[in-house]
Amino acid sequence: MNQTAIFWPMIAHVVLVYVIYALMSLRRRAAVKSGNAKASQFRENLSEPAESLFIRNNLANQFELPGLFHIVCLCLYVTSGAGLVPVVLAWLFVLSRYLHAFIHVTSNRIRFRQPAFAFGFLVLGLMWIWFALHLVGAV
């Protein structure tokens, strides 16, 4: 497998981040237009209107656990460990982030959001284990 295949899930995650930024902008604009918020509220980000709160929270979420994802992808690439298994795991992680984001910015029901997060959390853990095994030559 081409080692650069590990970059496609990373790019897909970056696309998700841009989509969330765009959605937050739309929701904030709608909140200002409806009178539920003032543009000045966003200068210091002290209060977020209900219309965009879940989106802002999800955006912050995209820079937490996914930071470890991007690091492990780069580590796998640099050490020539980005084979089929890590690439499949990377895609599973990104799919879990899309599902988590969709739930977070729509219903935000913890009952559905938590399993999506947990799945991605476990998949990312497997990626780091795979990387460690790769480093010691076990895979």
Find the CATH topology: Four Helix Bundle (Hemerythrin (Met), subunit A)
Task: Identify the CATH architecture.
Answer: Up-down Bundle
Averaged pLDDT: 96
| Strand residue content | under 5%
Number of separate domains:
1
User: Helix and strand string, N-terminal first?
Assistant: HHHHHH
Class by SSE composition: mainly alpha
Q: Largest sheet at a glance?
A: none
Quaternary organisation of the protein chains: single chain
DSSP summary: helix tally = 6
Straight-line N-to-C gap: 15 Å
Reading off the top of the CATH hierarchy, the class is best stated as Mainly Alpha
Report the C-alpha radius of gyration, rounded. Answer: 18 Å
Task: Name some characteristics of this structure.
single chain, 139 residues, mainly alpha, Four Helix Bundle (Hemerythrin (Met), subunit A), 6 helices, 76% helix, elongated
Task: Explain the overall architecture.
The mean pLDDT is 96. The protein is built from 6 helices and no strands. The protein has helices spanning 7-34, 41-44, 50-61, 65-78, 84-105, 110-135. The protein has 139 residues and is mainly α. The chain has one domain: Up-down Bundle (Four Helix Bundle (Hemerythrin (Met), subunit A)). The relative contact order is 0.15.
